[in-house]
Amino acid sequence: MDAVVKTSTIHPAEVSTSAAAKVEIPHSIRPSREEAEEAVRTLLRWAGENPGREGLLDTPARVVKAYGELFSGYEKDAEDMLSRVFEEVEGYDDMVLVKDISFASHCEHHMVPFVGKAHIAYFPNKGVVGLSKLARVVDVFARRLQTQETMTAQIAGAIETALKPRGIAVLIEAEHMCMSMRGVQKHGASTVTSRFTGLFAQPQEQARFFTMVHAPR
């Protein structure tokens, strides 16, 4: 599948003093592997390192390969993963919950990791999807640059579009390395985001969701 093509922007302060001045840079033309590896060498030199020393000779190639894995979500479509719906569920219409879905993503502000768990529940409408598909949807959006808030909304949006359920609950808990490794350096601080739609807008269903999420195994 072709990569999803978007446009990125440079903050106005980088190109102009005008708040309205933004430069849109299309990135439909993907840099070559050689160009990407040279960019890594540039960053190594900027950090004060010597890209030519023995331990770093193959680092640019390794970094580019790693980026291909870490940001593979751009080449995947979450809705495709949810396209197969199983309707023979013997009339089951109560909550379906998949919890403790581990993930690792990268914040778009500093390109450093944030790591955590996602909990997803929905009330079926006309059927259910394979449980592993919900975990795969988390990976699709986790393996892109974004914020945790955006990721939460994206997961809920993909499920809504594909399944049209009677309600969706998405809860994400994560530790951000941009807070623990740099800046305020607050190790162990956790960020929690959520999105509730449909039946999950009701307080009693939210309470039941949280009870099930935090119930001991």
Write down the secondary-structure element order.
EHEHHHEEHEHEHEH
Number of strands: 7
N- and C-termini, Cα separation: 38 Å
Q: Beta fraction of the residues? A: 15-25%
Task: Quickly name the level 1 CATH class of the largest domain.
Answer: Alpha Beta
Name the CATH superfamily assignment of the largest domain. GTP cyclohydrolase I, C-terminal domain/NADPH-dependent 7-cyano-7-deazaguanine reductase, N-terminal domain
Unreliable residue runs: 1-21
Structural class: alpha+beta
Give the count of helical stretches: 8
What does the largest sheet look like? Answer: 5 strands, mixed
Number of domains: 2
Strands of the widest sheet, in order across it, are 5-3-4-6-7
The gyration radius over C-alpha positions equals 21 Å
- The CATH topology of the largest domain, please? GTP Cyclohydrolase I, domain 2
Question: Quick check: average pLDDT?
Answer: 85
This entry's quaternary arrangement is single chain
